[in-house]
Structures are given as structure tokens and as C-alpha cells.
Design brief:
CATH class of the largest domain: Mainly Alpha
Number of domains: 2
CATH architecture of the largest domain: Orthogonal Bundle
Low-confidence stretches: none
Strand content: 15-25%
Number of strands: 10
Largest sheet: 4 strands, antiparallel
Number of helices: 7
Strand order of the largest sheet: 1-6-7-5
Length: 249
């Protein structure tokens, strides 16, 4: 599943299509009326966390890439039907595969809380901290994946941030010291920007210290691996150097 920084890269690649007019639209997305799209100009391309947004005069198209979604710009995947394909009067095309499409009515600024997007200029760490403190019983591995708090944070960022801060994923939010809670909010954003930089340089995996790893680089012992929390996402952690705050339940 693409995380927020990967969607920022897509936004940057698609930005030249702002202002272009849709000449043809096709695909197998059941939620779209393709004939309505023809003749519509793209007003903007935006992202909110893991959502890629194409803003049109009629409405906006929200694209979520799920676990295996992908896209192609000015080319198509051989043998794969598009969920949405757009060709433009000025030339070029955007094609999206294996993803979920939804229409967003009205203004995007009213539909989304931009302060929750960890990589947005509007990000408000104080708001994230307040939301965290309102969920003291939440496992920290679930809290980091809560898109209403940390929009754009995915499983890679979750594992790496918890390892960086030496926090056990089964710690509960309410048991974390205030300093650790503030560090959690800070590093969710810091690591997201590092992720973006490494992804652009094609060296992201080289910087993973915990995600998909077998041995802890700090302790030189085997990582634990399990599907934890209500999200049941793969989690990698070290029992020695990642402290479990609060009682063991």
C-alpha cells in the first residue's frame, strides 16, 4: 500500500496535467460516469495522506491505491485493464490500476482535515497530540496508522518510527511518557520527509532498520514479527531495546 510520501511523488509527476482538458475517459470503475468526465479540465491534483485527488469543476475523484494499486503516466500496462484512464486534448494520459475510486462532492478544503496530513504544510502537531491523548487505551501500533491523526503514515513508517524511538508496538498511548508522546508526533513527520527523499533517490529500502528485517541492528538478536493490533498489520520489533510501556495484558 503506497504511503503518503509516495503519493506526493505521484502528485509532482501529475502536476503538468493541471489545466489540461479531458478528451477521453474509460475504465472499469463502477463509481464513475466516464461520459461526464469528457470536456472537464483538471483544476488541480492534490494528496491527503494516502488519497490522490483529481479536482474537476463537477466534483473531485478520490483514488486510493489499496494494497496493490499502481499508475502509469503517458503509457499503459500491458494486459491490465484500467480502473480509470484519462486522455487529454493537449496530449498525454493518466492511467490507474487496481485501486478504489470515489467521488468527492463540494470543496476539498471542506472534505479534508489538512492539518492531519503529516507531510502537508498545514500539519498541526498540537492537534495530533490532542487526538492521541484522547485515545489512551489505543495500542501505539494502531495509533500511528490512524489516518485521522497521522494521515499518510503507513506500515513502513510505523515500524521504523517505533524502532527509532525504542517503543514497543504493544505499548498503549496512555502509558507513554509525555516526552515519548511528543517524540512520536515529531518523528511521524520527520520520517515521512526522509521517506520522501529516499524514495526519490531510489534508496528507501537501504534505510530500513526494522521493517521486514530479521536481526535488530542495535542488539544483534532476532526481531519478533507478528500481525498486531486491530489493524493486524505486519509489525517488526526488538524485545530488548524497544520498551513496553504500561502493564503486559
Amino acid at each position: 500500500m503506497p504511503e503518503g510520501p509516495s503519493l506526493v511523488i505521484l502528485k509532482e509527476l501529475a502536476r503538468p496535467y493541471e489545466g489540461r482538458t479531458i478528451a477521453a475517459a474509460h475504465g472499469n470503475a463502477k463509481t464513475l460516469a466516464f461520459d461526464e468526465l469528457v470536456g472537464q479540465p483538471i483544476l488541480s491534483v492534490r494528496t491527503w495522506g494516502k488519497h490522490f485527488l483529481i479536482e474537476l469543476p463537477l466534483y473531485s475523484i478520490r483514488i486510493h491505491f489499496l494494497m496493490f494499486g499502481s499508475y502509469r503516466i503517458d503509457e499503459r500496462k500491458d494486459g491490465s485493464p484500467e480502473r480509470l484512464g484519462l486522455a487529454f486534448e493537449e496530449g498525454g494520459e493518466l492511467n490507474f490500476y487496481t485501486c478504489a475510486m470515489k467521488l468527492v462532492e463540494g470543496e476539498l478544503d471542506e472534505a479534508y482535515d489538512w492539518q492531519a496530513d503529516v507531510i502537508a504544510d498545514a500539519w498541526k502537531p498540537a492537534a495530533a497530540l490532542k487526538k492521541l491523548r484522547a485515545k489512551p487505551d489505543e495500542l501505539v501500533c494502531d495509533a500511528l496508522l490512524d489516518q485521522t491523526i497521522f494521515s499518510g503514515v503507513g506500515n513502513i513508517i510505523k515500524n521504523e518510527v517505533l524502532f527509532r524511538l525504542r517503543i514497543h508496538p504493544l505499548s498503549r498511548v496512555g502509558d507513554l511518557p509525555a516526552t515519548k508522546l511528543r517524540e512520536l508526533v515529531k518523528q511521524a513527520r520527520v520520517y515521512s520527509f526522509e521517506f520522501l527523499e529516499w524514495k526519490k533517490a531510489f534508496v528507501l529500502k537501504q534505510h530500513w532498520l526494522a521493517h521486514t528485517k530479521r536481526i535488530c541492528p542495535r542488539c544483534n538478536i532476532a526481531f519478533h514479527k507478528a500481525h498486531l493490533g486491530k489493524t493486524q498489520r505486519r509489525t517488526f520489533w526488538c524485545e530488548r531495546c524497544q520498551k513496553r510501556y504500561g502493564p503486559v495484558l
